[in-house]
Amino acid sequence: MEDRKSEETKQLPETFLFVSILSSPNETARRQNVRDTWHRLSAKGPTVFLSKFMIGTMGLAPEEKEKLEEESREFRDLSFLERHEESYDRLAKKTLASFVHAHENFRFKFFLK
């Protein structure tokens, strides 16, 4: 069991710094502002710096989800938290969910929210 887990971990994308950016489904313009500004500052590539916009998708209408999936295909910087419903009072749970998602899907030395 331990060997299989370490083998799975080896296959995950690796980066030095993983940046989790909490975002809501309707914040397309804000995500684009980040992409157009400080997101471009990392010229060192994804092995040094990798960022993902974390978006809760539980309870979204199919057309909202499709719009997000199109954005994800275009920019490849969205991560969907399938079991998280967006609301301000669930922000702490979203932070935890984003860390768990990053831990399960990436190898990193440091995590920044």
UniProtKB/TrEMBL annotation:
It is an enzyme of class 2 (transferase). The keyword Secreted does not apply. Its main location: Golgi. One of its GO terms (cellular component) is Golgi membrane. It is found in: Golgi apparatus membrane. Its EC number is 2.4.1.-. The keyword Membrane applies. GO terms for molecular function: galactosylxylosylprotein 3-beta-galactosyltransferase activity. GO terms for biological process: glycosaminoglycan biosynthetic process; protein O-linked glycosylation. Keywords: Glycosyltransferase, Golgi apparatus, Membrane, Signal-anchor, Transferase, Transmembrane, Transmembrane helix. This is Hexosyltransferase. It comes from Caenorhabditis tropicalis. The lineage of its organism: Eukaryota, Metazoa, Ecdysozoa, Nematoda, Chromadorea.
